[in-house]
Amino acid sequence: QLDHGCALHTAARGGLSSVSPQEVPAERPRAVFHTSESDPAKHTEQHEGRLYDIPLEEVKAVFPHGLPYRFQQQIKTFNEARVMVRRPALELLAYLKGSNLAHPAVRYVIYGERGTGKTMTLCHVVHYCSRQGWLVLHIPDAHLWVKNCKELLQSSYNKDRLDQPLQASVWLKNFKTSNEHFLREIKTQKKYTWGKRESTEEGRPLGEVVEQGLARVRSASDAVGVVLREIKQQSHRGSFRLLVAVDGVNALWGRTTLRKEDKSPVSPEELTLVHNLRKMVRNDWSGGAIVTTLSQTGSLFQPSSAYTPHKLLGREGFDALDPFVPIPVANYSPREFESCYGYYLERKWLQHEKAHTEDGKAELQFLSGSNPRQLDRLAGPL
Amino acid sequence: MAAPSAAGLGWRLRAWLPRIMPVRWNRYNPSYLEPEVKKESYQKPLEELTEEEREQRELKAVRPIKAAPPTLSSSVFSDPMISKFTNMMMKSGNKVLARSLMSQTLEAIKRKQLEKYHKAPENEKETIECNPYVIFHQALKNCQPIIGLTNITKGGKTYQVPVPLTDNRKRFLAMKWLITECRENKHRRTMMPEKLSQELLLAFNNEGPVIKKKHVLHKMAEANRAYAHFRWW
User: Name one Pfam family in it (chain A) (predicted).
Assistant: First the structure.
């Protein structure tokens, strides 16, 4: 019957043998499940199961949107953002490091059961790419674009399509916060006319298109389309590397809950935002990568037991995304569970006196089934 | 032909039904024993048990055991006071909703206290209590009245007479006041966990409307001291 302290020591003994001396900082003996390496580029299998820290300013700059809500609450309570390094993320980072940017973009689809950490894996990859200086096109949840839309305008560009001004303007605002310097460097290659008096000349920085979209909310969806088009056309030149990160990509090929004014249902390709995003996710451009996540949680008209790409994407989506590299994400391994449990104890998140005992830990492991989301929800009231 | 035989069948069947039908309570034969849920009691070796406990063990081998109610749990995290409070919060049997509200309340209390803890300077950190269960129990204890009032009719007039309260009644009154306060005096858009966590934290510090209600009751009892002899039990 191992004592809690003993368990840490055995883990330390097992961990230290594979860890080089400079990993464990000598001044402050932080526990084994932390790592001081906050650059995702240097994460290797040694760091598997450990939590690395993202400085809060970086969190605000890199993730204006995209982090799960409970994780944002956790950042606010603990005053730090700690992300666990897990095997699927390490696999993806290895692929990205070894990818040839002259070839067409490779598509990666992260899939797994509910609450296993797909969005966090995506956020890890986004952090790596923004540290490496890539242009990150992060769509936090594609499901938000196909449901609960209060305003649907008929698009001025194409009579058959529908615009979503609110969603587009929110996304443009967040895109501006995360990629300020790129918007100054990339120049438009065509003249765009927004209305009778407004137009953007050729050769103006892309930031102006974004400002236009934010100022005139009616043309925000068209501004998004222009931004996506320009970035895609210029990515092959090699001046910047592009990462398209879409969370909940199965929303693009499913059904919507939106209706037109004559109460007929709207299919996804009739929405400008979805149409442009579908063009982005095709692999007819080079100079970057496309990393996507499947999500059943926000999806429409999908049974809750569906988690495989075949079930969630449907035939149309699978054919559109085919060929892709599937990356499965599973529940916590025993080591990762120990690490998460130890972190909660250290941050005083588990306050119940029985939670510190072996019985409490065994009960938490059993009740959550080592599922990250269930563990988080169970540890909340404890 | 059908009518007389149906009547005869009903009369014969009715004879062996118990005289009172249990509704919302259960009626066991007195030989049935209570179920034992705690793991520790089964892990004790035979030598450590006292005489009575050994007798109980032997009885368990022969006597039948009552069915365990769904609220009885062998989890190390279960707390009878919290279960009682959740049951009182429950409306139309929706235990799932009541339990989730309770867990969200405890989480809200924990978050507020942890934020305060991390922002406080080093010397004040020990004074801040972060355990939501400790806060809950202390808040309930602070809300319990010591003495209550009851109506006694004497000579045609009804008097409010101060009377001692049992432990159960005190606990019930504290929980009832908290829940009614949170249900009635909150803004339409505030969620129950948020309001409850606020009230619990105030009661923990001996402030807030529930503590005030308790003090009002105490003052009334003190004012009606003259009628205390009307009580005959």
Answer: DAP3
Which pLDDT does position A238 carry in this prediction?
Answer: 81
**In A, which residues are within 8 Å of B75 by CB distance?**
363
8 Å CB contact of A381 and B131: no
CB distance from B130 to chain A under 8 Å? yes
Q: What is the pLDDT of residue B17?
A: 57
Q: Please indicate, yes or no, if residue A196 is contained in any of the structural domains.
A: yes
For chain B, list the domains and their CATH numbers: 80-230 (1.10.455.10)
Q: What is the pLDDT of residue B27?
A: 82
- Residue at A286: amino acid letter: S
**A119 domain-assigned:** yes
Test the B interface: residue of A71, A351, A368 with most B CBs within 10 Å: A351
Domain holding A374, by residue range, is 334-380
Residue contacts between A and B (CB atoms, under 8 Å): 47
How large is the ipTM? 0.83
Res. B49 pLDDT band, cuts 50 70 90: low
Q: Cα dihedral angle (A21, A23, A27, A33), rounded to 10 degrees?
A: -120
- Closest-CA residue of B relative to A381 is B107
Strands (E), chain B: 147-154, 157-164
A30/chain B closest Cα distance in angstroms: 18
A170: three-class secondary structure by DSSP:
helix
SS3 A187: strand
Answer yes or no: is A46 within a domain. Answer: no
Q: For A3-16, what is each residue's pLDDT tens digit?
A: 343 333 333 333 33
How far apart CA A158 and CA A269 sit, in angstroms, is 12
Q: What is the pLDDT of residue A4?
A: 40
B193: nearest CA partner in chain A? A381
pLDDT of residue A337: 93
